[in-house]
Amino acid sequence: MAPPVTLDTINPKVLKCEYAVRGEIVTLAQRIQQELQSNPGSHSFDEILYCNIGNPQSLGQQPITFFREVLALCDHPAILDRSETQDLFSADAVERARQILDQIPGRATGAYSHSQGIKGLRDTIAAGIQARDGFPADPNDIFLTDGASPAVHMMMQLLIRSEEDGIFCPIPQYPLYSASIALHGGTLVPYCLDEETGWGLEISELKKQLEAAKSKGIAVRALVIINPGNPTGQVLAEENQRDIVEFCKTEGLVLLADEVYQENVYVPEKTFHSFKKISRSMGYGEEDLCLVSFQSVSKGYYGECGKRGGYMEVTGFNADIREQIYKMASVNLCSNISGQILASLVMSPPKVGDKSYKSYCAEKEGILASLARRAKALENAINNLEGVSCNKAEGAMYLFPRIYLPQKAIQAAEDANIAPDAFYCRRLLNATGIVVVPGSGFGQVTGTWHFRCTILPQEDKIPAVISRLTDFHKGFMDEFRD
């Protein structure tokens, strides 16, 4: 008798869904890690260096003290009135925890909250957005979520009716988008970023792809923008952002702005501007543009991936649509309370005059300065490899170098029935313990090959990453030289 569930009988949308960041290469890395633990010396390296995912604390980044103090006090309010608490926690963390607990019904972080998130925390986030952008923000526009990913899923669920609905996505893209579009039964409409111009977005490319989609009977509903870029690490110029806003307004597209790396900008000539700020500065209001902005506590300098905190700010939608979004949020009851608290702290950190301000600034600046140094060191090293070119790491947490693979290597990959960049990444892992993700998992121009590498290994590990990668690459090129 056949089992009740087989690959032929499950939802075909699940089969179409892929997520390369935790794909085949990572599974292989985890197997090798187990081998290293059970049989030390079984490989030519003694540890796996995970450069595949933006997961800072797993690689040794320390959490921000003030954030964790407030979280701890909120989770265990019984210690707020103990005398030793004053010695263990900063005074402003104690004060902030009291304020937050006063906003939580029942003062209980173990209770459900309002489905959009705790109102007082949304007030704080709205004030933080207003301080960042210089334009008003409404707490009722904010939906707190378990990281940015559920917010993206929610919007895809709202917008996609059938395969005839398309969502514009950058190529390369973060595979959350392709996976989410596949799961919800829509069509990904690709637009290629221009590697030659530092992963720039050309409006002419958007127009071309929009016409191509229309000719296939696809109604494009929304445009996804990732800024700063993942996996590409670019920061959009303000002028480019204005053109994008204008395009979305003209074509009646929802603008889905993934802005989770807004704190991660490493070059002095670039600045992060939110799409809401850009659209408001152009004179466009609620009635002109449907805009959803995503933010997360997983990235930035805080890197609190496991706390699953984030939000989306939803503007420009009619009241009846907002009601439907609220209904979808209600189905999930609410996002986790620790993540909600963290999202409010991220958007309202210690200020001048607060007891924790100096130590907070030192931690934040130390992390961001170190990330900038690591990005530069890896960028330089990768650009020194034969047949590899890498654009500037302007922001986010990644480099996305292009590899010009020898024909023999491409042939060997084809013989092994594997994409050439995946072949390279697998060989790199087996030889060095370094885990990177093949560019084919993100999308790339046909005939080009890339890999995504995070800048997150701790600074003292970067020389080892560079030397292992350099030695491997030299050997690989020699082995497959045409």
Automatic annotation (TrEMBL):
Q: Which domain of life is it from?
A: Eukaryota
Q: Which cofactor does it need?
A: pyridoxal 5'-phosphate
Domain named Aminotransferase class I/classII large: which ranges? 93-463
InterPro entries named among the record's database cross-references: ALAT1/2-like, Aminotransferase_I/II_large, PyrdxlP-dep_Trfase, PyrdxlP-dep_Trfase_major, PyrdxlP-dep_Trfase_small
List the pathway annotation.
Amino-acid degradation; L-alanine degradation via transaminase pathway; pyruvate from L-alanine: step 1/1; Photosynthesis; C4 acid pathway
Q: What GO terms are given for molecular function?
A: L-alanine:2-oxoglutarate aminotransferase activity; pyridoxal phosphate binding
The broad enzyme category this protein falls into is: transferase
* Coiled-coil ranges per UniProt: 361-388
User: Which PANTHER family does the record associate with it?
Assistant: ALANINE AMINOTRANSFERASE, ALANINE TRANSAMINASE
Quaternary assembly: Homodimer.
What protein is this chain from? alanine transaminase
Protein keywords: Aminotransferase, Coiled coil, Pyridoxal phosphate, Transferase
The root-end lineage is:
Eukaryota, Viridiplantae, Streptophyta, Embryophyta, Tracheophyta
Protein species of origin: Juglans regia
EC number(s) of the enzyme? 2.6.1.2
| Family recorded in the similarity comment | Belongs to the class-I pyridoxal-phosphate-dependent aminotransferase family. Alanine aminotransferase subfamily.
